[in-house]
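---------- Forwarded message ----------

FYI, see the Tetratricopeptide repeat protein record below. Original note from H. follows.
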Amino acid sequence: MKRNLYILLLFLCLSMLSRKHIYAQDLTPFADQNVDDLGDVSDEFQETFFEALKQKGIENYELAITALNRCIAMEPTQAILYFERGKNYEALKKNDLAEEDFLKTLSLKPNEEAVLEALYELYYKSKDYGKAENTVKQLIPFDSQYKEDLSRIYTATKRYDEALQLLDALDSEKGGDPYRDQLRDRIYTLSGNEKGRTDAIEKKIASNPTAEADYLKLIYLYSEQGETQKAYETALKLKEINPTAEEVNLALYKLYLDDGKTEDAILAMKNVLKSNRITPDAKHRVLNDFLLFANKNPQYEGALEEAILLFDSQVAGSKIYQELANYFISKGAKSKALPYLKKALENDPDNIEVIKKTLLLQLDTGAFQDAEEIAASALELYPSQPLLYLTYGVALNKQSKFKEAIDQLEIGIDYIIDDTRMESDFYQQLGDAYAGTGNVAKAQQYIDKANALKAQNNK
């Protein structure tokens, strides 16, 4: 029985630890305490403790606490009991009671890393950063990796310089680390310290001149900051290191475009769009940038359309398709815009704004059957949107499906709230639909209502 209890205690303690410390050190709270160290515990104690573990395992935390209370009544000096009860209180979000039990555990078993870690995590989650800072400083002597946690606290309390100093110290001690790089990026973003971000990457390149990823980060940063010459110089350095680096075209594209070397910029843009290494987001930014350029320089629309075909063959995204559609709409090329709206809708079928824009453009270009199908599907998602009923009704009227149009329009008009212009449109379409069925009197009644509202809106 005692051997089984020891195994369960060991498993329980391992489950308390964060993944970082299980993998880093295999530490367990009370690792030096086996069942014999608990003293001459009774069978009743062991059975009750097993019951507590079982209830916690099936998330019956209140019952687990009840069992632990009975154990504490029998063995009030066993630290593991308070620690385990604290974890159950934490699961119930009774943080004050959890804190009390963790502190009691430390009073019985001082300076236990796993207990300090649990206490730190409790404070951090509840945003009690003062207590969290004090606790994590007690953890750092166990493992300097806890400086990352202290850096998170400094970030949360806007002590950005101190946070960065800790990360730098860890890099010096342990070498670079992607997680710490992410923390740095977050700090620079929150603090708005773009110069610090740039300086840090320049420093990394100076210490490791062959790290391509750092050159790319620096190119992006310089480009975003409008430092096109520096971006270009960095791109050339990267090209020296790796002449086949496709990412260098990101910097070259913008520099060529700003310098008026448009043909070179177009070539660089195409290389970006063809690349398998450059991210879709980066491709999107380049294409969107060239779209804005072509809008001001229409002589390059042909190059834009070639770029769109390249992009379209590799990348799908509702946002860029909407931007392309808006571009062609602004040029009056509605027939060219419509396919991109349909693609935007395929990528984001629940987007009500894309649905509405697609429907209106379909009606405008005479794609009435397509509009009918999209409106019918959209109403399954948004049954109280009056514009969907209106566009549905228009599409049906245009196909001489007058009775179906009347059904949809009469349903939809009840959803209008304080929009007399839309109400007038509904009446006009109902008038057209009744006229189509041969009911001239009813048609005139609705047309008169539409005209009255139009006159009211024109005042």
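H. also flagged this: Residues 350-459 form a domain with the Serine Threonine Protein Phosphatase 5, Tetratricopeptide repeat fold (CATH 1.25.40.10).
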